[in-house]
Amino acid sequence: MSSDAIPESTLPYPPVYKDKRFVVLSDWDGTITTQDSNDYMTDTLGFGKDRRRAGNLEILAGRQTFRDGFREMLESITANGHSFNTCKEVLRKNIKLDAGFKDFNTWCTANDIPVVIVSSGMAPIIRAVLSNLVGQEVANNIDIIANEVDVEPNGGWNIKFRHPTSGYGHDKSRAILPYRDLDSPPLLFFFGDGVSDMSAARHADILFVKQKDDGENDLAAYCNREGIQHIIFADFSQALKVVQAVVSGEKTPAQVLAVGRA
């Protein structure tokens, strides 16, 4: 699942922020939220946690692509007869926000730092849950780069991958690498937690990896295996202190990465 080849995108990208000194890009599921919404759907509406977790480990080991494993997860939900609208409502009721994200996003907005969600999930679900958690006005100011959904008249649905020819389905490096071509590229913070973030992990200036209480620390395991420097954080209130130190010039990226924890 190499990021070297540029996969064709079936969906448009928002404009690159050309005049910013700093940009925050973050995974959504399990990073901005306390629980992965797609895992939640699979565990409760699809083929269950045990099979889902076994698939995650196959992806981490490189024996299956994220795209194919993720498609199998979602197909198990539709096979059980759950419509897309039903899934959205289940998630709106059950998915919670990271306790520190609102303050983190407010500080970034006040300091002219864009926050962009880069997700391997589905944009309609993210927008529905995000607006429920932070309010429509705040949600409207956050760009979302994600997959889409094809919903059939009978209520059935299928994921529409942003990069269907890529083993990632959505190669998140493609949301980061265009910044490298700018004359004055911003410093890029990236936040993630799982196997869907592996394509982005080595391309950020400062990578934050969320510590998971359930032991599913797949991105941390990948970074440790590949020798990718990262900062472990429990919630965005911890991460905010690190971001503030870098933005103010109090600390350099090398200094905060050397510590390895927020």
From TrEMBL:
Hydrolase in keyword set: yes
Taxonomic superkingdom: Eukaryota
UniProt keyword Aminoacyl-tRNA synthetase present: no
InterPro entries xref list: HAD-like_hydrolase_phosphatase, HAD-like_sf, HAD_hydro_PyrdxlP_Pase-like, HAD_sf
UniProt keyword list: Hydrolase
Any one Pfam family match given in the protein's UniProt record, by short name: HAD
Gene3D superfamilies associated with the record: 3.90.1470.20, HAD superfamily/HAD-like
The protein's name: HAD-like domain-containing protein
Species assigned in the record: Mycena metata
